[in-house]
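Why should sequence recovery work at all? Because a backbone constrains its sequence more than one might expect. Tight turns favour small or flexible residues, buried strands favour hydrophobic ones, and helices have their own preferences. The token representation captures these environments compactly. In the example below, the structure is given first.
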């Protein structure tokens, strides 16, 4: 190591290592694109953006050899693990990101492998109405019923109540929320988007977060405008806990290992929040099979979902790569640290750089 690098700020050294790893992973995705699109093909040319409901994505017309080659590359990112992969975070907030009924059930099951989070949060969209097979799953596998036109948010509410032991009279709208505008700025107001549900037998706070957009689109395959994604959900909860005086508490996201691109979200969130720990807990194929009462899937994600997931990973890595590029002198001057609040009650980004830690480890050593 040179004298110059040995004297470098450890946080900057950590970011340099991440930038090198991001470059390598972008190379892998370019290789995957060339497997199915030929020499020179790029991921944003051959891999379609995922639809709002991923299982509705079209199945690509790949040969068995192409599928095997692309899956081998996907496995390098942590896709397809059989067993649960804990977040590795000590305490803090753990978010079940929502989705189909069995996905939320599996995310709740993944909570059991975590090292005592202080808060458990269930997120769900009020725009997506549950499908018939989800109602059937709830009835036959869990003995639960919801109204015919119940939404994913209603389902998240149901699971939050179950996690809290079916409380009565404890629910309370909290004094936090977010705007339905670009970037979803966090606001310190009782918007009704964040609700306290109750406490578990272990004393963990259980909360409910409404994942809504400004306007539901006419094309149901597309998400509502300004709906916060996984990265925004983690950032919103980082803002909320900071306002509560808990600036260093870790923030985790529970999801499927079919969505290993969420790991990139944690890296970006960590860089934006001064090195606070972010992580992803992923339930495995075995957990999902036990929840659904079906055989273990031989490979995940399913073929029709693989292109969209790789495209999302590619787009997020591109954004992260731009974030890690050294700034010019003028950019550094322009990027002064904002006050945590502006007159409208928005919560500002700290603008700090992270120290090396578990967030970096997630990117450098994705779970297998």
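From this structural description, the recovered sequence reads:
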């Amino acid at each position: 190591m040179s004298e110059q690098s040995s004297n470098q700020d450890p946080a900057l050294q950590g970011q340099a290592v991440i930038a090198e790893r991001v470059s390598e992973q972008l190379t892998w995705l370019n290789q995957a694109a060339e497997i199915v699109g030929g020499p020179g093909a790029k991921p944003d040319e051959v891999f379609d953006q995922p639809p709002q409901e991923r299982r509705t994505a079209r199945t690509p017309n790949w040969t068995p050899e192409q599928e095997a080659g692309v899956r081998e590359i996907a496995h390098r990112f942590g896709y397809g693990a059989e067993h649960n992969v804990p977040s590795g975070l000590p305490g803090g907030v753990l978010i079940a990101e929502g989705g189909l009924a069995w996905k939320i059930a599996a995310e709740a099951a993944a909570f059991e492998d975590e090292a005592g989070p202080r808060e458990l949060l269930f997120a769900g969209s009020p725009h997506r109405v549950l499908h018939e097979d989800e109602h059937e799953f709830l009835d036959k596998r869990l003995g639960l019923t919801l109204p015919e036109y119940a939404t994913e948010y209603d389902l998240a509410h149901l699971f939050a109540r179950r996690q809290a032991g079916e409380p009565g009279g404890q629910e309370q709208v909290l004094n936090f929320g977010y705007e339905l505008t670009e970037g979803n700025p966090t606001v310190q107001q009782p918007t009704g988007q964040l609700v306290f549900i109750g406490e578990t037998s272990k004393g963990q706070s259980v909360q409910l977060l409404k994942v809504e957009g400004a306007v539901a689109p006419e094309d149901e395959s597309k998400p509502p405008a300004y709906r916060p994604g996984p990265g925004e959900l983690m950032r919103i909860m980082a803002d909320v806990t900071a306002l509560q005086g808990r600036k260093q508490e870790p923030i985790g996201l529970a999801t499927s290992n079919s969505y290993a691109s969420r790991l990139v979200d944690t890296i970006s969130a960590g860089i934006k929040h001064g090195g606070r720990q972010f992580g992803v807990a992923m339930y495995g194929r075995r957990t999902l099979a036990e929840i659904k009462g079906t055989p273990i899937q031989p490979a995940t994600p399913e073929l029709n979902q693989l292109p969209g997931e790789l495209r999302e990973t590619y787009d997020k890595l591109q954004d992260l790569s731009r974030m890690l590029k050294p700034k010019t002198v003028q950019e550094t001057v322009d990027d002064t640290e904002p006050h945590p609040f502006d007159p409208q009650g928005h919560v500002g980004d700290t603008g700090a750089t992270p120290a090396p830690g578990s967030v970096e480890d997630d990117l450098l050593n994705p779970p297998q």
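A few observations help interpret the result. The longest helix spans residues 10-37.
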